[in-house]
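QA checklist item 7 of 12: single-chain prediction sanity check.
[x] sequence parsed
[x] length recorded as 172
[x] structure emitted
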Amino acid sequence: MRFALAGVGVVVLLIAIVVAVGYSLPVKHRAEVSATFKATPETVFTLITNVEAFPGWRSGLKSVELLPSTDGRKRFREISSDGAIVYVIESSEPGRRLVTRIDDKSLPFGGTWTHELTPTADGGVTLRITEDGEIYNPVFRFVSRFFMGYDRTIKTYLADVGRQTAGLAARK
């Protein structure tokens, strides 16, 4: 019985430490990752703005639903094994820049992704994604900071873009 109580005490202590560390971490973070592709800025921009086609090339994405626009801005819901997230396109400069924002206040996180496309000398493009994120739940902050990394989703997304642009180049 004493060992069981000690075990429960250790678990409670660990949870308290996770919560305390989570509260000590900042709510806001910035993560930035870039990758270069053998595709034109226009090709990559078309790829990252054609939300209806996302399930065909994005890892883990089951479907996308277009939603009624807000103030003339395109809105959509991505559905994955992790659930549903609503996004809005904040701004768009074809071939150069795209800013998307999580448009769902009920989630324990939020923020924007700024996609910046820069042509390379060899006819390719560098796509830099900057996440200005917010994690409201202290346990999620702890997990994101120490286990997942703030840039994990960006790295997965850029790998998906790389596979898709390589596939597009192979079909030409």
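[x] summary fact logged: The first strand starts at residue 28 and ends at 37.
[ ] second reviewer sign-off
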